[in-house]
Specification:
Chain lengths: 643, 89
C-alpha cells in the first residue's frame, strides 16, 4: 500500500473515531474523563503500533531512516519534530498577552527555515553524515570539533527534552486528572516505544502521524469560532475584523470610569505591597509571595491602551526604542536558533537526495506555517471572548466556560470594586495557556473537541521529545562512543549502546521533570540562543568558506558559546545590560563574535588540507545518480562499518 | 551523465549564490524593516481589517517566507535538470 493511501486512511480513520466519540458524548452522555482517556489511549496506541511495525536494526535505517523519506512526509515529520508543547499550547496565549511584541516568536520560528533552506539543509544532505557532530568531525578533521558538537547538542537538547516531558505530564494531569508523575511516566513509555525499536525510521513515521493529529486539533476550534462569528471558516481572514472590535473594546475599557476605578484600586494594592516590601525582617517566603502579588496588581492596574485618546490599543502597537531593539534581536536569535538546532538539522539527512532536501524544507515550513499563521487568530478570538462575553457580565452570572475552567487555576475573576459587574481589570490571568485549552468551551463546542486538543498537545510534546531523545542518544553512542572511544565496536554493540542511551536519557529527563523546576521553561528559550551562537556560525562557515579550518571553527564555537553564556548569566543574575538587551536574545552578541572569531583565527592559522577543501567545493554540486549510490563520504551502511 | 565542466560549475554556483542573496535580502527587508522598524508607521494603513504593520508581522512575513523557500526549491531543482544532474531519487 502506498504511503499516501496509508496516511489518507489514517486521517479519515482518526476523524471518524473523533466523530464517534462525539456522538457518544452528545447522545449517550459519555463522561468527560472517559473522553480524555479514550483520546490518550487511542493516540498512544497508534504511536506504539507505528513504533513496533517500523522496528529495524539496519544502521542506515536506524540513524537516518534509510535516507528514503519523501519530501512531503519529511516536511510533516519536521513540522511535528519542531512544534513542541510550547508552540501548541503556550504560543497563542503568549501572543494574546504580549500583543505585537509576541509576534517575534511567530516570525522567528518560521523565518529561520529560510536560513536553513538556503544555507544549510541541501548542503548537509550532500555532505551526508549521520549527525551534526559527525559533520563537524568530518569537516574540521578531528575529535575536538566532534566533542564540542556533542556537548552543544546535548546541552541544547536535554533542557528542551525535559520541558517536553514536563508538558506531557501537565497535559495528562489536566485532562484526565491523574497524578503529574504518572503522566510523565506514561509519556516516557510512549516516547520510548516509538524510538527504541526503530530509531529514526520509527520516529519519522510516528512524527508524521503526530503532525496530522496536532494540526487537525489546532485548527478545528478556531475554524469553528470563525464560522460561528463570521460564517467564514478561515480564521486567518476574519480575525482582522476581530482585532478592530477588540481594539475598540480596549479603548472603551481605557476610558470607562468604572474600569478606571478598578484600576485605581489595583494601583493602591500595588503601592501598599511595595511599602510592605520595604519593611525590615521579612522572611524570604513572604517576600516572594508579596512580590508575586505585586506583579499581579501592577499588571491589573495597567490600561489596555496608552491614553484615553489613543487610536490603537497596546495590543496592536509596535514597540519603540529599546522595545523595538529587543523585538528585532529576539526575532533574529530565534531564527538562527531554529537553523542551528541539531534535532531539526538531522532531519535533512533522511532525505533521498539534495533536491528532496530543498523540497523538504519547503514542505516543513508550510506544515509549520499552518499552525503559526493561525496562532495570532487564536489569540484574537480568545481576547474577543473576554471583551465581548465576559466584561460587563454580572459576577453572579458568569459565562459557562469561566466556571468550567476556574478550578484549573489558569485565571481568576474577582470583583475588585464590588459593583457586581465584571470589569476588564477584574480578570486576573494566571497562565496564558488558557487561550488554547479553553477555546473549545469558549466557542461552545462539546468536550470531545477539548479531548482532541489534548491529543494534539500530547502529539506536539511527544513528537518533539522523540526527535530530541534520538539526537541526544546518537550524540552519545554514535559520536562519542563509536567515533571517539571505540571505533572498532561492532554493529550490534553500537545499536545496543544507542538503545541503552535512549532509555537512560529518557529516564533522566523524566526524573528531572518530576521536580517541575520553573527554570526549565526559561532554559528552553536559552537553548535557541546557545544553538544559534555555537552551531550556526561553524556550520555556515564550514559549508560556505572552504578556508575555514579546525582552529577557527573550534575556537569560534567556544567563543560564540562563551559570549552568549556570559551575557545570559550576567543579565539574568548579575544585572549586566548591553543596550538593554533581554537575556533571551543573548545570541545577538554571541553569534557575530562566533563568526568573527572563525574568520580571524582561520586566516591566522594554516588552511585545511586539500582534500577537505575539495570536499567543501564538491558539496556545492549535486551529482547524477548519487541518490542510489550512497553519499560522497561513503558513510552509508557499507562504508561506515568497514573499519 | 558526465561530470560538470569547470565552467559549468562556476555558472551553477554563481546562479545559486545570486539566488540565495536575493532571497536573503527579501527576508531581511520583510522581517526587520517592514515587520519591525516600519511596523508602527505602517499600522496607520489597514488591510482586510488588520493594521498593516501587525498584519505583516503576523501573516504577511510568514507567507513570504513560505513562498521564498518554495521558489528556491523550484528554481534550484530546475537548474539541476538544466545541467543534467539527475540524482535518481
Amino acid at each position: 500500500m502506498s504511503l499516501d493511501r496509508i496516511f489518507g486512511l489514517y486521517t479519515v480513520g482518526f476523524l471518524g473515531i473523533t466523530i464517534l466519540i462525539g456522538i457518544g458524548e452528545v447522545f449517550f452522555g459519555l463522561p468527560n474523563t472517559w473522553i480524555g482517556w479514550l483520546f490518550m489511549a487511542l493516540s498512544l496506541a497508534i504511536y506504539v503500533v507505528i513504533g513496533v511495525v517500523t522496528r529495524t536494526s539496519n544502521p542506515d535505517q536506524y540513524y537516518v531512516a534509510g535516507r528514503s523519506v519523501p519530501a512531503f512526509y519529511n516536511g510533516m515529520a519536521t513540522g511535528s519534530d519542531w512544534m513542541s508543547a510550547a508552540s501548541f499550547i503556550s504560543m497563542a496565549g503568549a501572543l494574546s498577552v504580549q500583543g505585537f511584541a509576541g509576534l517575534a516568536y511567530v516570525m522567528g520560528w518560521t523565518g529561520g527555515y529560510l536560513l536553513l533552506a538556503v544555507f544549510l539543509g541541501p548542503y548537509l544532505r550532500q555532505f551526508g553524515a549521520y549527525t551534526i557532530p559527525d559533520f563537524l568531525g568530518a569537516r574540521y578533521g578531528g575529535n575536538m570539533a566532534r566533542i564540542i558538537g556533542v556537548l552543544g547538542a546535548i546541552a541544547c537538547s536535554l533542557m528542551y527534552l525535559i520541558a517536553q516531558v514536563t508538558g506531557v505530564g501537565f497535559i495528562v494531569a489536566r485532562f484526565i486528572g491523574i497524578d503529574f508523575n504518572i503522566g510523565v511516566f506514561l509519556g516516557l513509555v510512549g516516547v520510548l516505544l516509538c524510538s527504541v525499536l526503530g530509531g529514526m525510521k520509527s520516529v519519522t513515521w510516528t512524527q508524521v502521524a503526530q503532525y496530522i493529529i496536532l494540526i487537525i486539533s489546532y485548527l478545528v476550534p478556531v475554524v469553528y469560532m470563525s464560522w460561528t462569528i463570521f460564517s467564514i471558516p478561515i480564521p486567518e481572514l476574519t480575525y482582522g475584523q476581530l482585532l478592530q472590535r477588540n481594539n475598540a473594546s480596549a479603548i472603551a475599557v481605557t476610558r470607562d470610569p468604572k474600569e478606571k476605578e478598578t484600576r485605581a484600586l489595583w494601583k493602591k494594592d500595588a503601592d501598599e505591597i511595595t511599602a510592605k516590601l520595604k519593611e525590615p525582617g521579612l522572611s524570604e517566603a513572604d517576600r516572594t509571595k508579596l512580590t508575586a502579588q505585586r506583579t499581579i496588581a501592577v499588571t491589573q492596574s495597567r490600561a489596555p491602551a496608552a491614553s484615553d485618546d489613543a487610536k490603537l490599543g497596546n495590543y496592536l502597537t509596535a514597540p519603540t526604542g529599546t522595545g523595538m531593539w529587543n523585538f528585532l534581536a529576539l526575532t533574529f536569535c530565534l531564527m538562527v536558533g531554529t537553523a542551528g538546532l541539531p534535532h531539526i538539522l538531522t532531519r535533512y539527512y533522511t532525505t533521498p537526495s539534495v533536491r528532496q532536501a530543498r523540497t523538504t524544507c519547503g514542505w516543513a515550513l508550510f506544515c509549520i506555517f499552518l499552525l503559526y499563521f493561525t496562532a495570532p487568530a487564536y489569540a484574537a478570538f480568545a481576547r474577543f471572548a473576554l471583551y465581548a462575553r465576559l466584561v460587563g457580565s454580572k459576577i453572579t452570572e458568569l459565562p459557562a466556560w469561566v466556571n468550567l475552567w476556574k478550578p484549573a487555576g489558569l485565571f481568576e475573576v474577582v470583583d475588585k470594586n464590588g459593583d457586581g459587574i465584571v470589569q476588564w481589570a477584574d480578570f486576573v490571568l494566571k497562565s496564558s495557556d488558557f487561550v488554547v485549552l479553553a477555546t473549545p468551551e469558549i466557542a461552545g463546542l462539546p468536550f470531545v473537541i477539548t479531548g482532541l486538543v489534548m491529543a494534539g498537545g500530547l502529539a506536539a510534546a511527544l513528537s518533539t521529545a522523540d526527535g530530541l531523545l534520538l539526537t541526544i542518544a546518537n550524540a552519545i553512542s554514535h559520536d562519542l562512543y563509536y567515533n571517539v572511544i571505540d571505533p572498532r565496536a561492532s554493529l550490534v554493540k553500537r545499536l545496543t549502546i544507542t538503545k541503552v542511551f535512549l532509555v537512560v536519557t529518557a529516564v533522566v529527563a523524566a526524573y528531572i521533570a518530576t521536580y517541575r523546576l520553573s527554570l526549565i521553561v526559561e532554559l528552553v528559550a536559552w537553548a535557541f540562543s546557545l544553538a544559534g551562537a555555537s552551531f550556526f556560525p561553524a556550520l555556515v562557515m564550514g559549508i560556505w568558506w572552504k578556508r575555514t579550518n579546525k582552529w577557527g571553527a573550534n575556537i569560534g564555537m567556544l567563543v560564540g558559546l562563551g559570549v552568549t553564556l556570559y551575557y545570559m548569566i550576567g543579565s539574568r543574575f548579575f544585572g549586566v545590560s548591553w543596550f538593554g538587551t533581554t537575556t533571551i536574545s543573548s545570541a545577538i552578541f554571541g553569534l557575530p563574535a562566533g563568526f568573527l572569531t572563525i574568520w580571524i583565527v582561520s586566516l591566522l592559522t594554516a588552511p585545511p588540507p586539500k582534500e577537505i577543501q575539495d570536499l567543501v567545493v564538491s558539496v556545492r554540486y549535486p551529482k547524477s545518480g548519487q541518490a542510489t549510490k550512497g553519499d560522497p563520504l561513503g558513510r552509508d551502511a557499507k562504508g561506515v562499518f568497514a573499519h | 551523465m558526465a561530470e560538470l565542466t569547470e565552467k559549468q560549475k562556476q555558472e551553477y554556483w554563481r546562479y545559486n549564490v545570486r539566488l540565495t542573496t536575493i532571497l536573503l535580502i527579501i527576508w531581511f527587508v520583510v522581517t526587520y524593516i517592514i515587520s519591525g522598524i516600519m511596523a508602527g508607521w505602517l499600522n496607520q494603513f489597514s488591510i482586510i481589517g488588520f493594521p498593516l504593520g501587525y498584519y505583516m508581522a503576523a501573516q504577511g512575513s510568514l507567507a513570504i517566507f513560505v513562498i521564498e523557500i518554495a521558489v528556491y526549491a523550484l528554481l534550484m531543482n530546475k537548474k539541476d535538470l538544466e545541467y543534467g544532474i539527475i540524482e535518481g531519487d
